[in-house]
TrEMBL record:
Listed InterPro entries: OxRdtase_Mopterin-bd_dom, OxRdtase_Mopterin-bd_sf
Species of the source: Planotetraspora thailandica
This protein's name: Oxidoreductase molybdopterin-binding domain-containing protein
Membrane-spanning parts: 14-32
All residue ranges annotated as the Oxidoreductase molybdopterin-binding domain in the record: 69-215
Length: 230
């Protein structure tokens, strides 16, 4: 696991320009409660805009978002699209996802920034069930995930995506996923670092090869296994 030396340059410019905005910028930023934490340099590699992780810190989590603002989606307007190299592309509502067989996994949430939360329950639909329902076509080798924050992306090989510990999670901590934790639907890749668990999931696309995700473009491993730390 290699950490990037510095955050993405564009995001850093955004952060600096936000500091210049002062109170107006802070009020406009939905995730920010305290400006001082950023000023003191408490900006993580995963949080280059400085917009997240500043809320009260329940149970050791930090809330991360690389997007400055994320629309809220409810059962009424949430949709998950599945497409790419599949026989039957389709769209699921939240109700349709809830109606499918649910799997509960208790795992660790471990960020490369150094924090970890053990024994976190996640529940939802096995990604493998959705892939089977869609019917992966012969050339399918990998899965690409997109998010309704409009920015974040992730990827898994098809073999990884079909594991029994990879969930399209609807619940976290035995409650419906909160907006801050990526609700109403996030990916949960139990055997990998938490950056693989894309929040605000809106798209699943089967591809012919792995397309590196957001952090992977900045040097993170596509294979983010927890048991192979550097
Ligand atoms: N859409 C989206 N998903 C994301 C991220 C993000 O910035 N945007 N950050 C990732 C990282 S680095 C971590 S550690 C976890 C943090 O999840 P949490 O905010 O629920 O604690 O979400 C992952 N999924
Ligand atoms: Mo992370």
């Amino acid at each position: 696991m290699s950490e990037p030396e510095s955050g993405p340059p564009i995001a850093r410019r955004v952060m600096l320009s936000m500091l210049g905005l002062g109170a107006a910028g802070i009020v406009a930023a939905p995730f920010v409660q305290n400006g001082w934490e950023r000023v003191l340099g408490a900006v993580s590699q995963h949080d280059p805009t400085g917009l997240s992780g500043l809320l009260p810190n329940p149970g050791g989590f930090r809330y991360y978002s690389v997007a400055a603002s994320v629309p809220r989606k409810t059962a009424a307007d949430y949709r998950l699209e599945i497409g790419g190299l599949v026989e039957r592309p389709g769209t699921y509502t939240l109700g349709e996802l809830r109606a499918l067989p649910q799997t509960r996994i208790v795992g660790e949430a471990r960020c490369t920034d150094g924090w970890r939360v053990p024994d976190v329950p996640f529940a939802g639909v096995l990604l493998s069930d959705l892939l089977d329902a869609a019917g992966v076509r012969a050339g399918g080798r990998a899965v690409r995930f997109t998010c309704f924050d409009g920015v974040y992306t992730e990827s898994l090989t098809l073999e990884q995506a079909r594991r029994a510990d990879v969930l399209i999670a609807l619940d976290m901590l035995d409650e419906p996923l909160t907006h801050e934790h990526g609700g109403p639907v996030r990916l949960y890749v139990a055997p990998m670092y938490f950056y693989k668990s894309a929040k605000w999931l809106s798209g699943i696309s089967v591809t012919d090869k792995v397309i590196p995700g957001y952090w992977e473009e900045y040097g993170y491993d596509v294979d983010g296994w927890l048991d192979q730390e550097a």
